[in-house]
Amino acid sequence: MLDRFRALLGNGLFWQRFWLAWIAVWLANIPFALTIWRESLGYLIFLSVAALILSSAAAFQGSLGMRKTDPEDPL
User: Fold this and answer.
1) pTM across the whole model
2) What is the pLDDT of residues 36-46, one digit of tens each?
3) Residue 67: alpha-carbon gap to chain centroid
């Protein structure tokens, strides 16, 4: 189980699809954000938390790239 998880985290194709899916989610939210949720504090809080989580995931992905370029790292 852990080996499959490690392989998934080190898979560039997985990360490409992951980020592409999030781009689609945010693009699909644009009409709602401009109309229905324009004055919603809850939506603003959700966006702030989502930005924090996704930026941390992007930093994690960057660190995986650094590890994969190190020939001595067993990842």
Assistant:
1) 0.69
2) 988 899 989 99
3) 18
Under 8 Å between Cβ of 28 and 37: no
| Beta carbons of 10 and 75 less than 8 angstroms apart | yes
For tokens 């985290």, name the residue: 9
Long-range contacts at 20-27 (CB < 8 A, ≥ 24 apart): 22/54
Residues whose CB is less than 8 angstroms from the CB of residue 53 and which lie 6 or more positions away in sequence, other chains included: none
Question: What are the structure tokens assigned to 18, written together?
Answer: 């992951």
Task: Compute the C-alpha angle 67/70/71, nearest 5°.
Answer: 130
Reported as a pLDDT band with limits 50, 70 and 90, residue 50 is very high
Tell me which residue has tokens 């190190």: 70
